[in-house]
Amino acid sequence: MKQKSFQYWQWRTLIVLMIGYACYYFLRKNFSTAIPAMEATLGLSKAQLGAFLTANGIVYGISRFVNGIIADRANKRRMMTLGLLLSCAISLLISFSPKFNGFLHLLDAEGKATVGLVYLIGSLWVLNGYVHGMGYPPVSSLMAHWFRPKELATKQSLWNASHSLGAGAVVALCGWLLSRFGYSAWNLCFVIPAAIAFVGAIITYFGLRETPSDLGFPEVEELERIENGEISEAEAETEREMTGPEFRRFARHMVYRNPYVWVSGLTNFNVYVIRLAILDWGTTILTQYRGLEIGLAASIVAGSELIGGVLGSAIAGWLTDKVFHHRVFRCGALCTILSTICLFLFWRLPAGASWVWNAVLIILSAFFVYGVSGLCGIGASKYATKKAAASSNGFVGIIAYVATVLSGFGFGLLADNPRLGWDAVFVVTLSIGVLGTIIQALFWNAPEDGYPRKHEYEREFTEIPGGPGSSGGM
């Protein structure tokens, strides 16, 4: 009965985390879908909108790093819920920002955005980037606490579908809203997702618990010893919170000086360029470069998330555990090169090609890129172990989101340049994809996880007073 109860809490934790993080994406990728409408209605340029995306991504990466350190030692449920509620408030402020024109000069005589409105929306979107950094660190820590390393790739890849479910659903929703009510209704792309995310915040707060030991279960690293008959459940060690100096020393060894965490971060940078090129600019590329109608373009991008993203993430996790023997870089290298090939074929489609071919290749590219994107987070958790999973993912995140400098502002400038245009965007994106494949292939024989490194660390500091292997240590 206790085993069934533990499995219930594992699945409950997984499902609630999926709902909560999908709602974060409702308040992140709504902006990307609203770009063509905001460009047409408010007169914003691609460079300005790209700058918003870049600034948002950089601040998000910094926030993931900062909040990753905090999340390993803080109440994860409260952090995740608070970030979602704050993002709801910011989304509503963006939607109603032109209404402040009465006492702030935000619109000119033609109803276009002034510099004041540009700065207001940009500042709010940057702030949104920070509060979104409160979402992923609690997830990575909770997943590492509730699932064993040998099953983490499969289970976290299932959770990783929340990215695609949230992004795909909000892209489809916003695309339908703009198609139904016109570009002038761009503000609905912020109001309605905020209302949905508010419900998600309530579910997140009341649905989660911190660790198995809070509910009287053994910690995950003890489960295998219990199942193998090495110890009884009564003999299982309970988790002890590290002191500040202990944790900082542990994090230096397991995160910042861990080469496999660095590889996860560099890989994530490369795949984020591809991923954000599809997700942030996909609707704009399909409408302006391929000439598709906004509703159809948004549906294709939504399909890349709901079909390609969900299936790609889940299958990559299963392959990692069942075929590649838990080695994330092997499966990641394969996924990266296949995603790059699909994006290349999309770029080289002849003019006037059916929308079906556009859809198939975009979805296939997302299928593979989401596979490796999820594996980067899994690798960060596995190689840093559950004790520093949030810190590790924060570190990997800040490396990855430097990609928004290129995918946001950089791609916006290239697309606005009449001599370069979208062709230059594709050349840069494909080059980054090849580089990501090479980096992972160089670490083909990396170990399964970081627990051997953790055990070496414990042995090294056994004689240090207050160290992890000393009396009362880990």
Topology overview:
Elements: H1 2-26, H2 30-42, H3 46-71, H4 76-96, H5 115-132, H6 136-146, H7 149-181, H8 188-207, H9 220-227, H10 244-256, H11 259-289, H12 294-322, H13 328-347, H14 355-384, H15 389-400, H16 403-416, H17 421-441, H18 451-460
Instruction: Note the total helix count.
Output: 18
Write the CATH homologous superfamily: MFS general substrate transporter like domains
What is the level-2 CATH architecture name?
Answer: Up-down Bundle
- Gap between N and C termini, in Å? 29 Å
Mean pLDDT: 83
Radius of gyration: 23 Å
Detail the poorly predicted runs: 469-474
Number of strands: 0
Largest sheet: none
> What is the structural class?
mainly alpha
Q: What order do the helices and strands follow?
A: HHHHHHHHHHHHHHHHHH
Q: Give me the CATH fold name.
A: Growth Hormone, Chain: A
Q: Indicate the CATH class.
A: Mainly Alpha
Please tell me the total number of domains. Answer: 1
Q: Tell me roughly what share of residues is in helical segments.
A: over 70%
